[in-house]
Amino acid sequence: MFKQFLIASTICVMPLMAACSSGTDVNASEVTVAALTEKLPNLTGDHVWNVDPSQSKLQFRAEHNGDKFTGNFGTFDSVVKLNLDDPSGGEIHAVIDLASIDAKDDDRNANLPSKAWFDMKSYPLATYSATEITGSRADGYVANGMLSIKGIERPVQLRFTVDENDGTAKASGTANFMRQEFNLGTGSDFETEEWVKFPIEVVVSLTATR
After folding, report:
1. Per-residue pLDDT tens for 109-124?
2. What pTM, to 2 d.p., does this model score?
3. Is residue 150 a contact partner of residue 123, using CB atoms and an 8 Å limit?
């Protein structure tokens, strides 16, 4: 997808937070982009875009203990079918390897795999899927999709713009959700915003060709 994302999304994705308490150590992800691609639908026909993950980014913004930070997911992939002049009938799908998260802090990275947060052993991937897209080149687009994290699906809206030049599209957009909607940060320490704020913003930058 020309990501927009997520991502997670992707989204997508998306993705997407911080914590500070005891938890398991996070290990470098061994999941490859090719492995994620196999989990995406095979879109065919006109207006299918080939996303270049190496030229794309899936990031998230959150606030932990007064520290506003931007993290990222290093491994994700997406597929997009979109007529920029008539987005009806368009599709965006993304899959994100949660173990590839980097929340820019060792303590946060060590705790995010735990059951209180992403529970990565049980739910290693997050997904985003949208089949309702509206908008225009001039005003931007809106994708109404479903984000899945920890086996929980919630509607999440992705707003994005696309700059196309000679068959290459650069898309950028944002999606917002509240972490408690996906049981991110369970337990008494995180049921309020004292340590980790509720809002999460997903930021997507995609490069795609056709």
Report:
1. 999 999 999 999 999 9
2. 0.84
3. yes
